[in-house]
Amino acid sequence: MASLSTLLFRGPALLRSCPRLSAARNYAAGGNFEYIVTEKKGKNNNVGLIQLNRPKALNALCEGLIKEINQALMTFQEDPSIGAIVLTGSEKAFAAGADIKEMQDKTFQACYSGTLLKDWDRITQLKKPVIAAVNGYALGGGCELAMMCDIIYAGEKAQFGQPEILIGTIPGAGGTQRLTRIVGKSLAMEMVLTGDRISAQEAKQAGLISKIFPVDKLVEEAILCAEKIANNSKIVTEMAKESVNAAYETTLAEGIKMEKKLFYSTFATEDRKEGMTAFVEKRKPNFKDK
């Protein structure tokens, strides 16, 4: 049996605690958060940035933090000036796990009939693209949160893992499902059954992330990517995201059928006409998101 020190070393955030969210707290649009910092970035302020801000707890994902992330995501989703979102943590930790003290005394009945992890996957329902910029630890719920995003960029010292097995449970927010679909059964099984971590380099080789950057350049590069996305037609970008995501949910035949329908749907937009006209006229398109 692993010693307590081993568990702490392999999964530091899984034992962190977080004060419960006050039901009386009111949020102002884009601010007044306790556990996150939000702002608009990019030359045209068309990128939404959400930074997890619980450094002493290595950005452990407690109930209050998840609620604030969802609040910020919805604010950016409803902001017509925002075309893409970047989600990041600190240089030491993206998010090093869930709040085990919130779960420690829960019963099966409370978990099954209650709201435990209920809102964790709200990010997957967002229409706008979300880029995870991962530095440091992305363990347990932190790794699951990153996998819910559309693109993952990582700092060269990032570490990914699902160490829930070390405290007598299993991933509960997509760790066994998304990870297996992304990296394959063998590596996913090894990570889930041993609790071992993989490096940024190993994660890229396995297809978990798309690019690696120096630690101090990571967020800047993620914002640059988000700017490229935000400069395209927002409505067509949403269609493209929907089509790619369908590849994980449907058969190949159904996915191709859906892709064609969405492709045809672009011909009902002004932006498709503007984009093709600009191409023929050899100029930059002026998309209106219509």
From TrEMBL:
Q: What EC number(s) has UniProt assigned to this enzyme?
A: 4.2.1.17, 5.3.3.8
Query: What domain of life does the UniProt record list for this protein's source?
Result: Eukaryota
One Pfam family this sequence matches: ECH_1
Q: Could you provide one GO biological process annotation from this protein's UniProt record?
A: fatty acid beta-oxidation
Molecular-function GO terms, alphabetical: 3-hydroxypropionyl-CoA dehydratase activity; delta(3)-delta(2)-enoyl-CoA isomerase activity
Q: List the pathway annotation.
A: Lipid metabolism; fatty acid beta-oxidation
Give GO cellular component annotations, separated by semicolons. mitochondrial matrix; mitochondrion
Q: Where in the cell is it found?
A: Mitochondrion matrix
Q: Which reaction does it catalyse?
A: (3S)-hydroxydecanoyl-CoA = (2E)-decenoyl-CoA + H2O; 3-hydroxypropanoyl-CoA = acryloyl-CoA + H2O; a (3S)-3-hydroxyacyl-CoA = a (2E)-enoyl-CoA + H2O; a (3E)-enoyl-CoA = a 4-saturated (2E)-enoyl-CoA
| Record keywords, A-Z | Acetylation, Fatty acid metabolism, Isomerase, Lipid metabolism, Lyase, Mitochondrion, Transit peptide
The record's note on quaternary structure and interaction partners says: Homohexamer; dimer of trimers.
**Family membership:** Belongs to the enoyl-CoA hydratase/isomerase family.
Name the record gives this protein: Enoyl-CoA hydratase, mitochondrial
